[in-house]
């Protein structure tokens, strides 16, 4: 998996987390904006920690899909 693929996956996971939180808050009758901001910060911190703990070698050794035709 390439770095752009990982970034796209992370963005998709962020959207899922935000939508799930919004739905939960709607069901509970809470104000979503303060809760969503806190949840988004928590998700970003979790992702940043996961990326820091991932070995750089694993990301750099991912197969490239560049066929050199540029």
Please give a handful of descriptors for the protein shown.
single chain, 70 residues, mainly alpha, 3 helices
Tell me about this structure.
- This protein is mainly alpha-helical and 70 residues long.
- It has one domain (3-54).
- The chain is built from 3 helices and no strands.
- Helix 1 packs antiparallel against helix 2 (32-53).
- It starts with a helix and ends in a 10-residue tail after the last helix.
- The mean pLDDT is 78.
Topology summary:
Blueprint (H helix, E strand, L loop, with lengths): L2 H26 L3 H22 L2 H5 L10
Helix pairs in contact: 1-2
Shape category:
elongated
Number of helices: 3
* Count of DSSP strands: 0
Sheet-strand content, in percent, reads: under 5%
What distance separates the N and C termini? 21 Å
Query: Could you state the order of secondary-structure elements as H and E?
Result: HHH
| Low-confidence residue ranges | none
Structurally, how many domains make up the residues? 1
Integer average pLDDT: 78
Q: Please bin the fraction of helical residues.
A: over 70%
Whole-angstrom Rg: 17 Å
The helix-and-strand class reads mainly alpha
* Largest beta-sheet details: none
Structure in a nutshell:
The chain contains three helices and no strands. It has 70 residues and is an all-alpha fold. The longest helix is centred in the N-terminal third of the chain and has 26 residues, at 3-28.
């Amino acid at each position: 998996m390439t770095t752009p693929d990982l970034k796209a996956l992370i963005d998709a996971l962020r959207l899922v987390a935000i939508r799930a939180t919004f739905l939960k808050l709607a069901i509970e009758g809470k104000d979503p904006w303060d809760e969503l901001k806190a949840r988004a910060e928590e998700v970003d911190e979790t992702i940043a920690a996961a990326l820091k703990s991932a070995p750089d070698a694993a990301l750099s050794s991912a197969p490239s899909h560049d066929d050199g035709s540029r």
